[in-house]
Amino acid sequence: MDIVLQQLVNGLTLGSVYGLIAIGYTMVYGIIGMINFAHGDVYMVSSYITAIAIALLTFFGLESFPVIILGTLIFTIAVTSVYGWVIERVAYRPLRNSSRLSILISAIGMSLILQNYVQIAQGARQQGVPSLLSGAVRFDIGDGFVQITYMKLFILFAAFLGMGVLTYIIQKTKLGRMCRATQQDRKMASILGIDTDKIISLVFVIGAAMAALAGVLITLDYGAFDFYVGFIIGIKAFTAAVLGGIGSLPGAMLGGIILGLSEALFAGLISSDYKDVFSFSLLVVILIFRPSGLLGKPEVEKV
Amino acid sequence: MSKAVVKKTLVSLAVAGAITAAQADIVVGVAGPHTGAYAAFGEQLWRGAAKAAEDINAQGGINGEMIKLVKADDACEPKQAVSIANRLVDSDEAVAVVGHFCSSSSIPASVIYDEAGVLMVTPASTNPALTDRGLPGVFRVCGRDDQQGDVAASYIVGELGAKRVAVIHDKDTYGKGLADAMKSTLNSYGVKEVLYEGLTRGEKDFNALVTKIRSVDADVVYFGGLHSEAGPLVRQMREQGLTAKFISGDGIVSEEFVSVAGSPEYVDGVLMTFGADPTSYPAGKAVVKSFRDTGVEPEGYVMYSYTAMQVVAKALAANDLDPVAASDWLHSGVKVDTAMGTKSFDDKGDLLVSDYVMYEWDAKGKYNMLNK
User: Fold this and answer.
1) CB of B39 less than 8 A from some CB of A
2) Which of A7, A20, A279, B98 is the most exposed place for a label (fewest CB within 10 A)?
């Protein structure tokens, strides 16, 4: 019993982070129909920025957790958003009207550029940040116990807050309405006076900001990262986006959580050797029965 | 058209000739993960070999010829290892190789070296399969996983008296080989492992696995793998309140293990098997001192790499620079004086005497030899 509960907590924290990164894939796909393969590497860049932010803040003598975490979040989200904006501007906008294939290749190129740039600039070694928030809550259940670190609780809180704020922006604000309009029909939206280029840039910035949030949370939790961490987690988040229905915002979050939970439960209850096999099999099965993902809308063939 | 082709061929032949003629030096490849997640080990290999080559060249080289080192980066990936092995053999024309680091790279690369008659001495690859296949030109100056596993298993059973042992590996040649070797010795002592699982290299979240280890109530966790996964694993164990003893092999011998784990408190009490302190040999005192004088701590595999380079140089010197004769010479059981004492090899290419002992990490993030 305690073991299953602990696995649920493990899966939920992992899944909420997958969800945050999946948002970047799904929003970009929704608005310009491309898969941004450099997104995992944007997340990787944010890990490094997190470490830099922590180093800067402690250098200026700020030691208390709330100050550091807030400072790190603001700094990392701001800098990573700039990365997101620049990537769109440099690698994707010039190719907006070319074939889908060329923009895809451009994304893969961007991914390699980011990896190699970080490897050269920061070195290929494993990097680590010290743990900022230690301690855990412990619930005794029968003979066993469930132990959740404060950091994990903070991850859950911050991830769901981030998703909540984003959902509010997209659903309730004028900005969000412009995003949705651009997603539905870019030409019509621009005829109605929406600066679609600006909205597309904004979507990249939002995606990068969410990846940065995930980057800060994961980096603080696991403490270790290198220039290659974006790859596996990027693939997982992309899977989550497809699972939930690519293009759908709640789908990305749902897909992330389902993927995280299924990985944790399968690894915990059956075998960790085959957890990835299980997750991807799950993806295949879901796509057989729901080709557009759990919450995705089937694409209507325009005649 | 055909004239142009002929012309091109002639030009390229001439260029190739010029390159060969210019290579009067003895080219030795230093192959290992110079980039990637395991670059710290590649750096250790390079430092040791570079220092050895510098010292040997300062004393007149090998029979008067200078050693020229070539860096070859396999990133600890089997495919890349094969392609750089081909490059070393074909375009660099190396006669010997110090490396590789990861067993999964050394094994496929050794086939290429064998075909080309290149002498290969690895300072670090401990998987038994490397020398078990009977390739004549393959040697190692480190021990073998089965020897390492024996030491760990007898420590777990004898010193710790543990009954519930969880065995975790990273599904890679080195990690799984080490874990399997430990497991079979453990079983021969009559202790059956309570859990045997693999994790995925490159991931950082092992919480689900940690919870599973907790559910089987293990009091010892044996991990076959490298520090980049061992760090997060041990940290997440402690964070979930799992106090089981963590034991691993020589894959975590790097100061980076501490930074990857987050802080020294997490590595406190972690045990590992590793060759007896490579800096403690009387024969190597001068070398260790000159490393420290230049501000470099000869940690991990630095001295092994230095020794591997020495073995290469001595074997080539005794056999007129012929790598094939050199390997026969080494197999004959000759004693080679190195910075890590006198080494001799059996007919497989393994050391006649292994030197594994148990080390423990302390709360300051340093490792110390136990019972010595």
Assistant:
1) yes
2) A279
**Distance in angstroms (rounded) separating the CA atoms of residues A108 and B271:** 42
Distance (Å) from the C-alpha of residue B99 to the closest C-alpha of chain A?
19
Mean pLDDT, rounded, of chain A:
90
Name the CATH superfamily housing domain B2-143+280-343. Response regulator (3.40.50.2300)
Q: If you search the block for the tokens 């009207």, which residue do you land on?
A: A97
- Report the helix count and the strand count for chain B, using DSSP H and E: 14, 14
Q: Where are the domains of chain B?
A: 2-143+280-343, 146-277+356-369
Is the pTM here over 0.80, yes or no? no
B208 at the A interface (CB within 8 A)?
yes
CB nearest to A263's CB, from B208, B214, B261? B208
Give yes or no for residue B15 having a pLDDT over 70: no
For the record, the structure tokens of A269 come out as: 């209850």
Size of interface A-B (CB pairs under 8 A): 119
Q: B134 in the Ramachandran plot: left (φ > 0), alpha (ψ -120 to 50) or beta?
A: left
**Radius of gyration of the CA atoms of chain A, in A:** 20
CA distance B238 to B361: 15
Handedness of CA A79, A80, A85, A86 (dihedral sign): positive
Nearest to B119 by CA among B343, B303, B309: B309
Which among B197, B203, B212 is the nearest to A232, CB-wise?
B203
Compute CA distances B258 → A257, B235, B254, whole Å: 31, 10, 8
Each residue's pLDDT tens digit, B54-72: 999 999 999 889 999 999 9
ipTM: 0.83
Which residues are within 8 A (CB) of A245 and not within 5 positions of it... i.e. 6 or more apart?
A: A251, A255, A290, A292, A293, A294, A295, A296, A297
Residue B212 contacts A where some CB pair is shorter than 8 Å:
yes
Are A20 and A210 in contact by the 8 Å Cβ rule? The answer is yes
Rg of the Cα trace of chain B? 22
* CATH code of the region B146-277+356-369: 3.40.50.2300
**Could you give all domains of chain A from N- to C-terminal order, each with its CATH number?**
2-289 (1.10.3470)
Which residues from A are below 8 Å from B208, CB to CB?
7, 10-11, 263-265, 267-268, 272, 275
Per-residue pLDDT of B247-275, as tens digits, reads: 999 889 888 899 888 888 899 999 999 88
How far, CA to CA in Å, does B222 sit from each of A55, A159, A230, B166, B175? Answer: 34, 34, 28, 6, 11
